[in-house]
């Protein structure tokens, strides 16, 4: 068993592959891979229907914030093995994934807790923004409540 | 000092641009005064007051009395409320 | 938004596809898909190396136990939308997935809690057994500790 | 009654088979007495005592004084400690 660990981030204008994210964290020293997928929900806002989201990011700072976040996760859950986070940018249609993250760990509890923490902290700290686009062409910048 | 200012999301829409050079910025300067300089150039940013923070060399800085030391070429970003994920 | 919900179980002698499990629970009314993947860990047991696991199941009763489990999950987290669980049978090499489960929900917290509960209850109640197979050909039936 | 007994995992290895018909089973019968019948046919199952439960018509039943009413064709399974997942 090697001591090598991986933190892999990707900001992508293309469709996200859950298989790719899972393969990135796969390790024969781990019995658990915990995954979270955030998808665009078909919402009604004030009678307007959401048809998709438009994402933008301060890309270089996303990299530095996620690097800090992974260091933080490894302090809290030292047994965490690999972390992979893919986030979409640009246009994301309703039903598509905007973020996929996976964490491998020897046992499941630490990985499941780490994924919950990871998505909460990403929403709180990663410089990424989305606006909802409605069926009447109007748009509205969102704000994470948490 | 000359710093590069980056605008994101609603701040880019309000300022009408995504990036500009800001020249003759005094240093040290409080983050509140730096925000004041940006407001003078882009008065429409005022609607973000109370919600926005800055990022200076990729570190978040609240708009307050905190004093920043800037160097030529530093990157300053206007950061409206985050909505990643 | 329709009221239709899906509980999908599969016992499979083939490689499990995380993409297939995720696609099965995908819903435009949901913003979150929580996933757990259990993989075969490369363990050392008393100096013998685990090369794989051999699974067997009381297949018809697995179906009835998982049906009960999903009803239980829907009572605890009524907003849970779709549940999909795929479990391997037969030979599973080190590093491969033995179980993949995904749950979709409008918001992430209930789905993440439901997945944790689902894997704990599956381990406690689904009539499935595995034996470890070692590099010296010896085998040993396992017992879930939880 | 004639019931079908299913053996899984270690119990199948110990009994040397996966399935058999058990004839002339009295009913009602306690789960402890049903386990006793199985032990008489397959003494090697004794090593599982204290760890094993039964499943009768796909419902788990501890080995105890609980009384079971059996019908012809009922499925009874020997359930060693579970290890799915």
From TrEMBL, chains B, D:
Gene name of this polypeptide: MOCS2
Q: In which pathway does it act?
A: Cofactor biosynthesis; molybdopterin biosynthesis
**What family is it from?**
Belongs to the MoaD family. MOCS2A subfamily.
Q: Where is this protein primarily located?
A: cytoplasm
Q: Which residues carry this modification: Glycyl adenylate?
A: 85
Origin superkingdom: Eukaryota
Q: Which GO terms describe its molecular function?
A: molybdopterin synthase activity; nucleotide binding
Q: Which SUPFAM superfamilies match?
A: MoaD/ThiS
Give a GO cellular-component term: molybdopterin adenylyltransferase complex
Record-linked InterPro entries: Beta-grasp_dom_sf, MOCS2A, MOCS2A_euk, Mopterin_synth/thiamin_S_b, ThiS/MoaD-like
Post-translational modification note: C-terminal thiocarboxylation occurs in 2 steps, it is first acyl-adenylated (-COAMP) via the hesA/moeB/thiF part of MOCS3, then thiocarboxylated (-COSH) via the rhodanese domain of MOCS3.
Q: Which UniProt keywords apply?
A: Cytoplasm, Molybdenum cofactor biosynthesis, Nucleotide-binding, Phosphoprotein
Please give the name of this protein: Molybdopterin synthase sulfur carrier subunit
- Organism of this sequence: Nothobranchius furzeri (Turquoise killifish)
């Amino acid at each position: 068993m090697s001591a090598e660990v991986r933190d892999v981030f990707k900001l992508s204008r293309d469709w996200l592959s859950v298989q790719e994210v899972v393969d990135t964290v796969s390790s024969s020293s781990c019995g658990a891979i915990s995954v979270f997928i955030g998808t665009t929900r078909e919402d009604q806002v004030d009678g307007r229907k959401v048809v998709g989201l438009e994402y933008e990011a301060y890309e270089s700072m996303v990299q530095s914030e996620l690097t800090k976040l992974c260091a933080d996760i490894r302090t809290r859950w030292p047994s965490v093995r690999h972390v992979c986070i893919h986030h979409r940018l640009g246009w994301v249609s309703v039903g598509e994934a905007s973020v996929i993250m996976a964490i491998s760990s020897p046992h499941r509890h630490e990985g499941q807790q780490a994924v919950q923490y990871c998505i909460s902290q990403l929403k709180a700290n990663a410089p990424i923004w989305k606006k909802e686009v409605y069926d009447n062409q109007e748009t509205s910048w969102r704000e994470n409540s948490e | 000092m000359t710093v590069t200012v980056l605008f994101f999301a609603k701040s880019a829409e309000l300022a009408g641009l995504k990036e500009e050079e800001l020249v003759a910025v005094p240093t040290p300067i409080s983050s509140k005064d730096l925000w004041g300089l940006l407001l003078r150039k882009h008065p429409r940013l005022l609607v973000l007051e109370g919600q926005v923070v800055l990022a200076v060399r990729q570190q978040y800085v609240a708009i307050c009395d905190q004093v920043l030391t800037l160097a030529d070429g530093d990157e300053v970003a206007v950061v409206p409320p985050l909505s990643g994920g």
